[in-house]
C-alpha cells in the first residue's frame, strides 16, 4: 500500500469514526469529540493532498454492483493541490466549530453532516472517472444541505433559503451530469482519460462545454446561478459558511480546471471568451452587491461571487490565450487563477470565521448596529483585518500577489513579441484589465467598510457594546487563517512553482522562485518579491516612524471640541458613519444597476412642519438577477402548477377515469 | 352427449355473466345490483363447473364450489347485510341509463375486437368466449367511474374481479385450487374493509358519496 492509498483509506476510516462519534457521544461532549475527529479528517485530507501534490501515486478502487467500471480514486497533482486547499479550510472550520457550535449546530445531524460534507469535498478531487466524481459531488451537496437543515428548527428563514439552495445545487448537478454524459457518450467511456480523446471542436463538445461551465459556475457561485448564496450563507453559522464559501466553491473551480485544463485543454478561442465574460460579469456584479450590503455575511457572500468571477476570468484568459498560441501568458493566467483560488480560500474562510465570532459575541450581523468591536475583541479584529486586507488585495497579502499576477498575464497576454495574437484577445484583455481595476477599487471600499464599521469607532448598539472576545479554541483558527493570508502573500515563489507543477505534466508554466521566495514568471517578464519589498519598506519606515514618534512627544495632541457636534465635545454613536451611509455614494453611482428601493418616513412633532420627531429610512437592494431572471420563470412554473391542479383535483372519479381511458387507449392500440 | 351440449352450456353461462353485468349498469338500486351480483356469482360457478366436467378434473369442480360459496353467497350476503342495516339511497349515476347501455355495447364490441387479435391462434370453444370476460372487466371499470356511492363502486370492483376470473378460467382452463382460494379470500377481505370504510364515511358525512373525498388532511 502506498502512502497515497493509506491517506485515502485513512480519510474513509475517519469518516466512519466521525459518524459514529456524532451519533454516540453525549450532547455535552459532542462538539469537542466530533469537532476533533472532523479536524483529524480534514488534516488527513491535507496530508493526502500533499502526498499527491508531491507526486505520490496509488489508487483506491471501489467495486460497484452497477454495470459500470469500478470507481477509482487516484488524485493527480492538481487534485492533490485542491484537496489540500479544501482540507485546510476544513481544519480551520472544524476547529472553530469545536468552540462555536451550540444548540442546533452542535446537534447529531449537524456534526454528522459536517463530517460527510468535508469527506465529500475532499474526495471529489480524487476521482478519476465521471461516476465517482458525481458521487462525491452529490455526497458533498447532500452533506452541506443536511448541515444547513440542522438549523431550520431555530430560524424560520432557513427553510426558504434551503429550498433555494437545494434547487440551485440540483440544477448545477444536472448541468454537470448532462455535460459529462455528452462527453462520455462521445468518448465511449466514463474515465477522464477516455474523455480526453474527445475532439474539442465537435459541436457535442461545445454543448458539453456550455453545460459544464454552467454547472461548475453554479457551484462556484457565479452569476446567474449565485442566487442561493446571499440567502444561504447568512443563515449558516460561521464555521459552516467558512467551509461552504471557502472550500466548496473551490470544488466548482476544480471542476472547471478539470475540464478546461485536464480533459479538453485545447478548446476553441470562444470558450475562453465566454468563460471570461461569465467571470467578469460575476466579479463586477458580486462586488457591487457586496459594496452596498449592510449585513456582514451577505457582504462576504457576494464577495465570494466576485473572487470566483476573477478566478474564472483568469481561467478564461488562459483558455483564450492558449487557443491563440500565447502559451507563456496563458500559463501565467492559469497560475494566477489558481493563486487567487488559494488566497481566496485562506482569506474568505478567515473572514467568515471572524463573522461567526462577531455573531457569537454581539449576536448581530447588521453592520449598522455593530462598531467598536476592535477594542473588545482584539484577536478577532486583528485576524479579520488581515483577511480583509487579503480580500481587498492589498500588498503583502496573498490576494495582492494573485491579482498582480493576473493583471501581468492579461497586460502581457495580448501580444507575443510585439505582435497582436488575435482580435479577440486584443479586445478581451484590456476589458478584463478594466474589470479587475474596477473590482479591486470596489473591493477596497467594501472591506474598508466591513472592517471599519464593524470594528472601529464606537458601538452602535447595546449588543455590540457588551461584546466579549471569543474563547481560545475559536481564536486559534482565526489566527491560523490570518497567518496563512500573510504567509501565502510573502511566499509567492514556492507557491507558484508548486502550482506550476500541479497543472503539469502537459502544461509547464515557466515560473520560478527568485530572491527571498519571490516569484518570477519568465514567460511574461514579471517579477515580484514581497519579502524583499517588506524589508526595504521596513528600512524606509523605521526613520520615518522615529521622526513621527519624537515629534508626537514634543507636541502633545490637543483635544479640541468638534465644531459640528453642536459645541459639545461628546460624540454620540449615532453621529458616526454607518454601513448604509458609507455606501450611499456608490448606490447613487450605480443606481441603474442596483435599483435600490428606499423608504423614508418622517414623523413631525405635533402640527409643526419644521420640527421632526423622528426619521425612519429604509433601503434595500434586491438582486436584479433574481427579480428579472428567476421570478418570471418561477411565476411561469406556478401558473403551470395551477393548470396542473385542474387535472389533479383530488376527485377519485377523475383518477379512475384517467386509468379507464388509459386502459381503453391501450386496448384500442393493441387491436389496431 | 356432454360434448354436444358443452358449447351451449358455455354460451349460456357466459351469456348470463354478460347480461347480469349489463343489467347492473342499467339498474340504479343497490339491492337489485347485489342480487344481480349473486346471480353472476352462480353463473361464474356454473361456468367453472362446466369446464371442470369437460376436462374431468375434480380439482376444478372443487374450485367451482368455492366460487359458488364466495361469489354467489358470501359476498352478496355481506353486501346485502350492510345495505339493509343502513338507510337505502338510490344511486344517481353520472351517466344516464341509455348512454350507459350504449357504452356497454361499445365496450363489448371493443373487447371482441381486441380478443380477436390477442387470441388469433386459439380455436377452443372456451377461448371463443373469452371476450366476455374482458367485456366484464371494462364494464366493471365503467361502474367504478360512473357511480357515486361507495357501495355501488364496490359492486363495480367485484364485477371487474369476476371479469378477470372469467378470463382466467376460459383461457387457461382454471386456476389451481389454492390460488383461487387465496384470491377469493383476498376479495372477501377487501370487501369487508371497504364496507367498514364506507360505514365510517357515512358517520362522518352522512352519506357515502366519493366526491366528498377531495381534500387531504393531516
From TrEMBL, chain A:
Query: Pfam families, from UniProt?
Result: Proton_antipo_M
Transmembrane segments annotated in the record for this chain: 6-25, 37-58, 78-98, 110-127, 133-150, 162-187, 207-229, 241-263, 269-288, 300-321, 333-358, 379-407, 427-457, 478-503, 533-552, 655-671
Q: Where is the NADH:quinone oxidoreductase/Mrp antiporter transmembrane domain?
A: 127-421
Tell me the domain of life. Bacteria
Topology with regard to the membrane? Answer: Multi-pass membrane protein
Identify the InterPro entries for this entry: ComplexI-like_HydComp (IPR052175), ND/Mrp_TM (IPR001750)
Could you tell me the keywords of this UniProt record?
Cell membrane, Membrane, Oxidoreductase, Transmembrane, Transmembrane helix
Q: Does the keyword tRNA processing apply?
A: no
Localization: Cell membrane; Membrane
| This protein's name | Hydrogenase 4 subunit B
Instruction: Tell me which species this is from.
Output: Cryobacterium breve
UniProtKB/TrEMBL annotation, chain B:
Annotated TM spans: 6-26, 33-52, 58-79, 99-119, 125-145, 154-171, 177-198
* InterPro entries named among the record's database cross-references: HyfE-like
Record carries keyword Nucleotide-binding:
no
Q: How does it sit in the membrane?
A: Multi-pass membrane protein
Principal localization reads membrane
Q: What is this protein called?
A: Hydrogenase
**Subcellular localization:** Cell membrane
Keyword vocabulary terms for this entry: Cell membrane, Membrane, Transmembrane, Transmembrane helix
Q: Tell whether Nucleotide-binding is among the UniProt keywords.
A: no
Query: Signal peptide position in this chain?
Result: none
Amino acid at each position: 500500500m502506498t502512502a497515497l492509498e493509506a491517506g485515502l483509506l485513512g480519510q474513509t476510516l475517519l469518516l466512519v469514526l466521525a459518524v459514529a462519534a456524532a451519533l454516540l457521544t453525549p450532547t455535552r461532549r459532542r462538539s469537542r469529540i466530533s469537532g476533533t475527529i472532523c479536524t483529524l479528517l480534514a488534516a488527513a485530507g491535507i496530508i493526502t493532498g500533499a502526498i499527491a501534490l508531491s507526486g505520490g501515486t496509488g489508487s483506491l478502487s471501489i467495486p460497484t454492483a452497477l454495470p459500470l467500471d469500478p470507481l477509482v480514486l487516484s488524485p493527480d497533482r492538481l487534485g492533490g493541490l485542491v484537496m489540500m486547499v479544501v482540507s485546510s479550510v476544513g481544519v480551520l472550520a472544524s476547529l472553530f466549530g469545536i468552540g462555536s457550535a451550540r444548540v442546533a449546530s452542535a446537534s447529531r445531524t449537524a456534526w454528522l453532516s459536517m463530517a460527510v460534507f468535508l469527506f465529500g469535498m475532499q474526495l471529489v478531487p480524487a476521482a478519476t472517472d465521471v461516476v465517482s466524481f458525481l458521487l462525491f459531488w452529490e455526497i458533498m451537496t447532500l452533506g452541506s444541505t443536511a448541515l444547513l437543515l440542522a438549523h431550520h428548527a431555530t430560524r424560520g428563514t432557513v427553510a426558504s433559503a434551503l429550498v433555494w439552495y437545494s434547487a440551485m445545487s440540483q440544477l448545477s448537478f444536472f448541468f454537470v451530469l448532462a455535460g459529462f454524459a455528452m462527453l462520455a457518450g462521445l468518448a465511449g467511456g466514463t474515465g477522464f482519460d477516455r474523455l480526453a480523446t474527445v475532439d474539442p471542436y465537435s459541436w457535442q463538445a461545445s454543448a458539453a462545454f456550455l453545460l459544464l461551465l454552467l454547472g461548475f459556475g453554479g457551484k462556484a457561485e457565479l452569476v446567474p446561478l449565485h442566487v442561493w448564496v446571499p440567502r444561504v450563507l447568512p443563515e449558516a453559522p460561521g464555521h459552516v459558511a467558512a467551509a461552504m464559501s471557502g472550500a466548496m466553491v473551490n470544488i466548482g473551480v476544480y471542476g472547471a480546471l478539470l475540464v478546461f485544463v485536464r480533459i479538453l485543454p485545447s478548446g476553441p478561442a470562444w470558450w475562453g471568451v465566454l468563460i471570461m465574460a461569465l467571470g467578469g460579469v460575476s466579479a463586477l456584479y458580486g462586488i457591487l452587491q457586496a459594496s452596498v450590503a449592510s449585513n456582514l455575511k451577505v457582504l462576504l457572500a457576494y464577495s465570494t461571487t466576485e473572487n470566483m468571477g476573477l478566478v474564472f476570468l483568469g481561467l478564461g484568459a488562459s483558455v483564450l490565450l492558449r487557443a491563440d498560441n500565447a502559451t507563456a501568458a496563458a500559463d501565467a493566467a492559469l497560475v494566477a487563477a489558481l493563486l487567487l483560488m488559494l488566497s481566496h480560500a485562506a482569506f474568505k474562510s478567515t473572514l467568515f470565521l471572524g463573522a461567526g465570532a462577531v455573531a457569537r459575541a454581539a449576536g448581530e450581523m447588521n453592520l449598522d448596529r455593530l462598531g467598536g468591536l476592535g477594542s473588545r475583541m482584539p484577536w478577532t479584529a486583528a485576524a479579520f483585518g488581515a483577511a480583509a486586507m487579503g480580500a481587498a488585495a492589498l500588498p503583502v497579502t496573498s490576494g495582492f500577489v494573485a491579482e498582480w499576477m493576473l493583471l501581468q498575464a492579461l497586460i502581457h497576454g495580448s501580444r507575443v513579441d510585439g505582435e497582436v495574437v488575435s482580435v479577440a484577445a486584443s479586445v478581451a484583455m484590456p476589458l478584463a484589465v478594466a474589470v479587475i481595476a474596477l473590482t479591486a477599487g470596489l473591493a477596497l471600499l467594501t472591506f474598508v467598510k466591513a472592517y471599519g464599521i464593524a470594528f472601529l469607532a464606537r458601538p452602535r448598539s447595546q449588543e455590540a457594546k457588551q461584546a466579549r472576545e471569543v474563547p481560545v479554541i475559536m481564536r486559534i483558527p482565526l489566527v491560523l487563517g490570518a497567518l496563512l493570508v500573510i504567509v501565502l502573500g510573502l511566499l509567492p515563489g514556492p507557491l507558484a512553482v508548486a502550482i506550476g507543477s500541479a497543472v503539469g505534466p502537459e502544461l509547464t508554466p515557466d515560473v520560478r522562485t527568485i530572491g527571498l521566495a519571490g516569484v518570477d514568471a519568465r514567460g511574461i517578464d514579471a517579477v515580484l518579491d514581497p519579502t524583499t519589498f517588506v524589508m526595504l519598506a521596513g528600512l524606509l519606515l523605521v526613520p520615518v516612524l522615529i521622526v513621527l514618534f519624537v515629534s508626537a512627544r514634543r507636541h502633545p495632541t490637543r483635544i479640541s471640541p468638534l465644531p459640528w457636534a453642536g459645541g459639545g465635545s461628546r460624540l454620540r454613536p449615532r453621529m458616526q458613519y454607518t454601513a448604509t451611509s458609507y455606501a450611499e455614494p456608490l448606490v447613487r453611482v450605480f443606481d441603474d444597476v442596483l435599483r435600490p428601493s428606499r423608504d423614508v418616513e418622517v414623523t413631525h412633532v405635533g402640527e409643526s412642519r419644521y420640527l421632526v420627531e423622528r426619521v425612519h429610512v429604509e433601503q434595500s437592494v434586491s438582486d436584479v438577477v433574481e427579480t428579472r431572471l428567476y421570478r418570471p420563470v418561477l411565476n411561469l412554473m406556478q401558473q403551470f402548477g395551477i393548470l396542473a391542479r385542474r387535472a389533479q383535483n383530488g376527485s377519485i372519479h377523475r383518477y379512475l377515469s384517467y386509468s379507464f381511458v388509459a386502459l381503453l387507449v391501450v386496448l384500442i392500440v393493441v387491436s389496431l | 352427449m356432454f360434448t354436444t351440449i358443452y358449447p351451449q352450456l358455455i354460451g349460456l353461462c357466459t351469456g348470463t355473466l354478460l347480461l347480469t353485468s349489463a343489467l347492473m349498469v342499467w339498474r340504479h338500486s343497490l339491492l337489485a345490483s347485489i342480487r344481480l351480483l349473486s346471480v353472476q356469482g352462480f353463473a361464474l360457478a356454473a361456468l367453472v363447473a362446466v369446464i371442470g366436467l369437460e376436462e374431468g378434473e375434480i380439482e376444478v369442480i372443487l374450485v367451482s364450489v368455492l366460487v359458488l360459496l364466495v361469489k354467489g353467497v358470501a359476498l352478496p350476503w355481506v353486501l346485502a347485510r350492510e345495505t339493509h342495516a343502513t338507510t337505502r339511497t338510490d344511486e344517481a349515476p353520472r351517466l344516464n341509463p341509455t348512454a350507459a347501455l350504449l357504452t356497454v355495447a361499445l365496450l363489448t364490441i371493443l373487447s371482441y375486437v381486441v380478443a380477436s387479435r390477442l387470441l388469433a391462434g386459439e380455436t377452443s370453444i372456451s377461448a371463443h368466449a373469452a371476450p366476455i370476460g374482458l367485456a366484464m372487466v371494462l364494464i366493471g371499470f365503467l361502474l367504478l367511474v360512473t357511480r357515486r356511492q361507495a357501495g355501488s363502486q364496490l359492486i363495480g370492483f367485484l364485477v371487474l374481479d369476476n371479469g378477470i376470473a372469467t378470463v382466467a378460467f376460459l383461457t387457461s382452463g382454471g386456476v389451481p385450487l389454492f390460488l383461487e382460494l387465496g384470491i377469493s379470500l383476498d376479495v372477501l377481505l377487501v370487501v369487508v374493509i371497504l364496507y367498514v370504510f364506507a360505514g365510517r364515511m357515512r358517520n362522518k358525512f352522512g352519506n357515502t358519496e366519493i366526491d366528498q373525498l377531495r381534500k387531504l388532511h393531516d
